């Protein structure tokens, strides 16, 4: 790995960002090795210091070296890369929009001490991968993730710009990166658009939102910081990063789901228009369920070269089909059949039902685009526009309820529907009061609850029924029969707040660069558990596991070569290095068995300036 530092030159033609490696000795103090402007030669840096930083692993035997070689093979979260042939079809591996290279989906200390479980791929090789469509939305994180002293949620997890921190979502970064960047090993050039004053205009991105695409990934080592204007900024060092480049080919890179969607819209429209209601309904339900589950929004990622992954997806889809058919049969017999009576329904309103059905079925590209995750005050406040979008949704629901309620009253069904919905409301309230659980009304459950009230022959029934049936198929196809009550831990979705409380940092302003903390002895879960040690994070990587309650930065650098390399290297460019520090209780023998971390305290080394962490856990 090699540190990078950006120097900016401007001329009339372009803005050039030149990237230089970090020297490890003082030989470059000689003026012969400096350019006329005093900046070390880019070529000289790359020739002399390209291997300065390497992943820190202590290998005591030949067995360790063999294991290290095996770990260096290209890997990704949830799939495997086969690089044994040069055929472009080998890249037909779907990465998820939130896949990371060699990084687990969780955060904090999941990579182990010194990121030993998250070693980068081979530096000298570029790895080409295929990304799916819809990565503009697919890279969002819904459970809070700590990046330095920031809490990232409802954003694409992309740290940096031009070069990205190694734990960034690759495909989400590819969608955000413009294609008209000329990158090379010598630096990155951004084309300047003369039509816009003082800005850069980008016409195309590395991958398409609609069709996905292929990108090349190159590992470029440690970085001093990760500046950006659009993504997540991290203003300190990190030992691993990558750059993205346009793939040298485009064959076998297109995600075909929208082509299949266009064919289905025409084909199912013809069948739904000409066939009688019962036949067309069941044909539509079965075919669209498989389309949704296998093509449009599959529950698992498929590797086209591995037939077992496709077989697993088919098995999962068929597993859900029988109970879904039972639900649809009950709903059709009690509600939908009355609306779809061929003696009353017109073909035009059937097509209206079909149009709104597609609106609900394609929830991942329609309603999911609204800034509403869950209907809780805390979630809505964190999403930009969440409260306004929720108000709009409730306005639509209340208006529809009044319109459809009037239709139910005219049909003479108001009394029985009133009893039904009073029973539903009482049941939901009872479920919400169960201790240790939270009520979670998934959108397939919402469709099942509201559909009985749409069992009339009015025009509003066609519009509302279509949306609700589409939501039922989408929810079950993508998320299975998720429970209406969930534990508090499940509702946290892997975020902090359910584990043992963290220690408390203690800062003494008279003792610089000494980090101390106290154990949370008032936490009963700590007293009764085997969390007898501490896990110490520096810049979001675990660098110490032990029983000490005090650490000095110089001593840590002496004991940990990776930390020493990183801080010493950063000090060659900066007088004060910004360090983000977090601490948690853990099992000394297995630090993955841990409690919650503190929020990040900030220490400037070597000046010793200290900022206490914000309240809360991460």
UniProtKB/TrEMBL annotation:
Gene3D superfamilies: LCCL-like domain. InterPro entries: CRISP-LCCL_domain (IPR051957), LCCL_sf (IPR036609). Signal peptide: none annotated. The chain crosses the membrane at residues 258-275, 313-332, 344-365, 386-406, 418-439. Keywords: Membrane, Transmembrane, Transmembrane helix. SUPFAM superfamilies: LCCL domain. Coiled coil: none annotated. PANTHER family: CYSTEINE RICH SECRETORY PROTEIN LCCL DOMAIN CONTAINING 2, LCCL DOMAIN PROTEIN (AFU_ORTHOLOGUE AFUA_5G08630). This is LCCL domain-containing protein. It comes from Hanseniaspora valbyensis NRRL Y-1626.
